UniProtKB/TrEMBL annotation:
The gene is kynU_2. InterPro entries: Kynureninase, PyrdxlP-dep_Trfase, PyrdxlP-dep_Trfase_major, PyrdxlP-dep_Trfase_small. Its cofactor is pyridoxal 5'-phosphate. The keyword Hydrolase applies. It catalyses: 3-hydroxy-L-kynurenine + H2O = 3-hydroxyanthranilate + L-alanine + H(+); L-kynurenine + H2O = anthranilate + L-alanine + H(+). It comes from Streptosporangium fragile. This is Kynureninase.
């Protein structure tokens, strides 16, 4: 595998900002979101302050979710759930939405395609606007379909077109395994050597996260040999939020196609995919989006591509226009929207939870969620700062709030992360997520996590990890 350090440190310049994202740093103005300065630290006073902050917080929608009970014997009755970046909690409305589909099927059978409360034939279209708002896209640029890695493959079928010396695919060395396997298999699919074709960008020695300027510099030097840049918007391991507009601009300036895996970004950070000129993106719906295990995923294709009939696509009957679909013609009529990448008719029972969860995100809005998220994550970071100071723990997520979402990853430098996570759960009801061997991920999810959850996580770590 071609491994490379992402850039030449001598060429460094200030990382790009976030043009076009309104109101990111502000932590004022939303109902009940407390000022960080007003919250105390660890200890009994700190716990009281956290509970008081929660009592006044009207942006949090925890009451609309099913929060698992803590294991018997834990210090609190409810789980402090920090694994919403792995599998989001179940909205209370989800069960009824699934039941309603079953009822429609029972009562209407085949006529449910037209007569169901939410008719099945245009069902995916009902999710379009909310999905578009979530990722900052035009409605015709988004579609909810399949699962994440399948969507990445469908996107690469259209957008990974190796030719001449431009054959490489750039990913990050800390890419999620599925993305690594997907791009390697695409290289093989095109008759190329995956070890030569896939370039993995590594952070500088001694650092955990990529620097924007190093990625940009790599693309300036190697872009002419790069067909596709496919990076994670928020890295699953470190929680780093890459500068999507700056990297997209650099890749496109070098003539590359730039796609983003937004598994850990969708529902976590504000996105503006259309304005950022991203070529394509895909995300899953079971992490921050609370769509349930294996939930139907989302996909974005920029308008300049959806209106291009010459682009090669893998097709099926759901790729053709709805009006003539049942004429069963031998050739399809292309639709000038992301729907053109749909192949099969969608699984309505599985779409119902995603419809519910996308509605919730549209109601609250990513700007409000981001504001609450920065308060929660900033609070957790401050508490963890007290804990890690004299303990064998290290925060690997960027300290700059603009460079991260709702996740703080901790490196455990004594004992194993798995043992520590087990103790946090069994004794304290704090459910974190382990990435072996040494990382614990804590995601205070803005939709339902509380300030008291954050206090409990820091308190549990302080009790379970003895000072070095
Ligand atoms: C969660 C995640 C996946 C999972 O892929 P599925 O196709 O949904 O099973 C893939 N890539 C990234 C970056 C992820 O975080």
């Amino acid at each position: 595998m071609t491994s490379t350090r992402a850039g030449d440190p001598a060429m460094s310049h200030a990382p790009g900002g976030f043009p076009g994202l309104p109101g990111l740093p502000g932590l004022a103005g939303l109902p009940g979101i407390p000022e960080l300065s007003g919250l105390a630290g660890l200890g009994a006073d700190g716990e009281r302050a956290a509970l008081a902050a929660d009592a006044g917080d009207r942006t949090c929608r925890r009451a609309e979710f099913l929060v698992p009970p803590a294991p018997a014997g834990a210090r609190h009755p409810e789980t402090a759930y920090f694994a919403g970046n792995s599998l989001g909690l179940q909205p209370r409305a989800t069960r009824d939405a699934i039941s309603a589909v079953l009822d429609d099927w029972a009562v209407h059978a085949v006529e449910g395609h037209h007569r169901a409360a939410h008719p099945w034939l245009p069902y995916h279209a009902e999710l379009r606007e909310d999905a578009a708002a979530l990722v900052g896209a035009l409605p015709e640029e988004t579609v909810v379909m399949n699962s994440l890695t399948v969507n990445l493959h469908l996107m690469m079928a259209s957008f990974y077109r190796p030719a001449g010396e431009r054959t490489r695919i750039v990913i990050e060395d800390h890419a999620f395994s599925s993305d690594s396997y997907a791009v390697r298999s695409q290289a093989v699919h095109h008759g190329l050597d995956p070890d030569e074709t896939v370039v993995r960008l590594r952070p500088r020695p001694g650092e955990d996260c990529l620097r924007t300027e190093d990625v940009v510099d790599h693309l300036a030097r190697e872009g002419h040999r790069t067909a596709l840049v496919l990076l994670g918007g928020v890295n699953y391991l470190t929680g780093e939020f890459l500068d999507i507009p700056a990297i997209t601009a650099a890749g496109r300036a070098a003539g590359c196609v730039v796609g983003w895996d937004l598994a850990h970004a969708a529902g976590n950070v504000p996105l503006a995919l259309h304005d950022w000129d991203v070529d394509f993106a895909a995300w899953c719906s079971y992490k921050y989006l609370n769509g349930g295990p294996g939930a139907v995923a989302g996909c974005f294709v920029h308008r300049r591509h959806v209106t291009d009939p010459a682009l090669p696509r893998l097709a099926g009957w759901w790729s053709t226009e709805q009006a003539t679909r049942f004429e069963m013609r031998p050739e399809l009529v292309p639709v000038p929207t992301a729907d053109a990448w749909q192949i099969s008719n969608p699984p309505i029972l599985a779409m119902a939870p995603v419809r519910i969860s996308l509605r919730m995100f549209a109601e609250t809005g990513m700007a409000a969620l981001r504001e609450r998220s920065m308060a929660l994550t900033g609070y957790l970071e401050r508490l963890l700062g007290e804990v890690v100071r004299d303990r064998p723990l290290e925060i690997v997520t960027p300290a700059d709030p603009a460079r991260r979402g709702a996740q703080l990853s901790l490196r455990v430098t004594r004992g194993t992360a798995a043992d520590l996570a087990t103790r946090l759960h069994e004794a304290h009801g704090v459910l974190a997520d382990v990435r072996r061997p040494d990382v614990i991920r804590l995601a205070p999810v803005p939709m339902y996590s509380t300030f008291h959850d954050c206090w409990r996580a820091a308190d549990a770590l302080a009790r379970e990890v003895s000072p070095a």
